[in-house]
Amino acid sequence: MITNQVLLLLMLSILWPSIALPFAPGNIGNLFGMPESDGKILQRSKRGWMWNQFFLLEEYTGNDHQYVGKLHSNMDKGDGNVKYVLTGDGAGTLFLIDEKSGDIHATKRLDREEKAMYTLNAKVLDRNTNAELEPDTEFNIKIHDINDNAPKFAKEIYFASVPEMSEVGTSVVTVTATDADDQTYGNSAKLVYSILQGQPYFSVDSENGTIKTALPGMDREVKENYQVVIQAKDMAGQMGGLSGTTTVSITLSDVNDSPPRFANHSFRVTAVESTVIGAAIGRIKADDPDVGRNAEMEYTIVGGHDIFNIITDQITQEGVIIIKKPLDYETKRDYEFRVEVKNTYLDARFIHGLQFKDYATVKVTVEDVDEPPIFTRNPYIIEVHEDTAAGSFVGVVSARDPDADNNISCRYSIDRHTDLERLFNIDSVNGTITTLKALDRETSKWHNISVVATEINNPRQTTRVPVFIKVLDVNDNAPEFAMSYDTFVCENVKAGQLIQTISAVDTDEPLVGHKFVFSISPTNPNFTIDDREDNTANILTRRGGFSRREMSMYLLPVVISDNDYPIQSSTSTLIVRVCACDSRGNMQSCNPEVLPFSDGLTTGALVAILLCVVILLMIVVLFAALRRQRKKEPLIISKEDVRDNVVSYNDEGGGEEDTQAFDIGTLRNPEVMDANKLRRDIIPEMLFPFRRTSPIKDNTDVRDFINGRLQENDSDPTAPPYDSLATYAYEGTGSLAESLSSLESAATEGDQEYDYLSNWGPQFKKLAEMYIGKSPGRET
């Protein structure tokens, strides 16, 4: 092994003619182990020489300090008076110098990748005085690289993709490694790439690490993922070089190279005839090994179809068969059509020689269900004139049961929730709609009812249909004023002046529009009318000189007629007030003036006034006298009035202490009432014998009555087929108290005398006045 000192001497001997570095001015000997040769070979007068750079290999593994080089000055006579001092990068830590000999050693391993060069300064001092014998000299220690770093990739695993069926040599991805060794020194950082795993499908460029396809016709449907291992080796791939590896996961991306195909070219679907329009009845599916957009398919019916349609489910890529028109088992039960499937996206590179579509046959069988009735129209619109009499014909609705052979298969009814006023009725057999009441267009122009058709064999099957009934107009309303008019005429008005423009309205709606005619009495001395023939008229004055003293208000009847058939007319009254106006005709006041009295009244006027006062007083006096003498009318005026009468008595009884009027016990328990119990306070005249009917035991009469009515309803052929509630009202055969009505009296009123009622006490005073006053002998 050649030491640094020998290398240094060899290099100095070669470069001596051209390279000589002064150490310091003055008489200085050579440095770094250069022999003095008696001071003649490497010594110049007042000039010292030294080499300014050392070379040191990195990664020294010896146990001792690594020798770097040697410093030597011509001033050093070998007597120990010279001291060498080292300063700069790593001096004293990484690099140590022997003060006596000038030998430089490295204290530990040096790594070029951490620092490639160190700069230091060398000093030569007098050991005794520490005086500098020569000026400082700077030199470098450069670390020489060795191949101690393996190549490294940026990622442990790479992901890449390449389309399937790619040509050989198609670039997939480029992976590169880095080497920390010196790029400019030797081959330590020169890399070569190779493939360790992934052949024969892929290859790699040895210089730049680009991975390419190496096998033609790679099919994703056969194999989709590949694992490729790439190696990078330094020392240009020579033996002993260091290497690093990485893994590249390569996926073949899909292209549309596979057409869709039906696994089964015949499908059978079943649908019930009650399936609603737009509902799905079945699904079919074709297979496409491609994925994503390349597997998207479109289904169509070849030539189209009137009843069915097919759409594509974008999620499942299935063909969904739906209904376009209602199915009818009784009309047609089987259908057959062809379905075509094709890709929606085609790749031009693969369509040559392949047909990217397929066909299948679909057979649909319709199943029968119990369907509800079907109306011939939906909805019905019927017109009827207003004022039509009750029971008049309106229209007919018709429905049929599609599952029945005969036409009479359903019953009709009106949903009364849509006809709350019960204006219409319908025949349950033939569907004829009639009116129950007269219709008025001015009240309602339209009537919207719902008719329900119910199957006879299955009442749960019902169908509703709206029936819109339009009420046509009949001229049954007379025109009238369009508004309330506030009309006035000025006192200073002239004849022929316009005081009001009037118009009319009519709730009827004739086809040709309204045409009103206005007129007033031609003999009216105050006003006249001018019909403008545009459904308006002008009211004009016939004269002038109106006066509020004579008349403050005029009532003007105006006759308004229409032109429809039959002609309707009405008379509306226009109130015309007489008002005071200014010269421009502006109203100032309409209050009637207070007429001033003259200075004296005539004798005739005074007599008339007094006569009126006297007559008024006589009327008041006469009225008061008649009121005092007037006798109260009895409640029962005529004996022919045999109706039961309810009489209210306001007289109070004697209370609980009054035990003479009647027996309290009898009222509490009629069963123990004596047959001839009489009043105890008076001796009444017996008019009628007392009768008491024994009560009917166990209510046998009520039971017999109800059983009879129940048998009548059970045998009634006109009774409804469903459960109904029948109400039976039975008054009974009588009560213990008997009837209070005079209809069952034993004698007539003409045979009775009621004077004894006056002796019954104050409690019966009201009753005595009624009957005594009605006695024939007391009538006046």
UniProtKB/TrEMBL annotation:
Residues 1-20 form the signal peptide. The chain crosses the membrane at residues 605-626. Its main location: membrane. It is found in: Cell membrane. GO terms for cellular component: adherens junction; catenin complex. One of its GO terms (molecular function) is beta-catenin binding. It holds the Pfam family Cadherin. GO terms for biological process: adherens junction organization; calcium-dependent cell-cell adhesion via plasma membrane cell adhesion molecules; cell migration; cell morphogenesis; cell-cell adhesion mediated by cadherin; cell-cell junction assembly; homophilic cell adhesion via plasma membrane adhesion molecules; morphogenesis of an epithelium. Keywords: Calcium, Cell adhesion, Cell membrane, Cleavage on pair of basic residues, Glycoprotein, Membrane, Metal-binding, Repeat, Signal, Transmembrane, Transmembrane helix. Cadherins are calcium-dependent cell adhesion proteins. They preferentially interact with themselves in a homophilic manner in connecting cells; cadherins may thus contribute to the sorting of heterogeneous cell types. This is Cadherin-10. It comes from Neolamprologus brichardi (Fairy cichlid). The lineage of its organism: Eukaryota, Metazoa, Chordata, Craniata, Vertebrata.
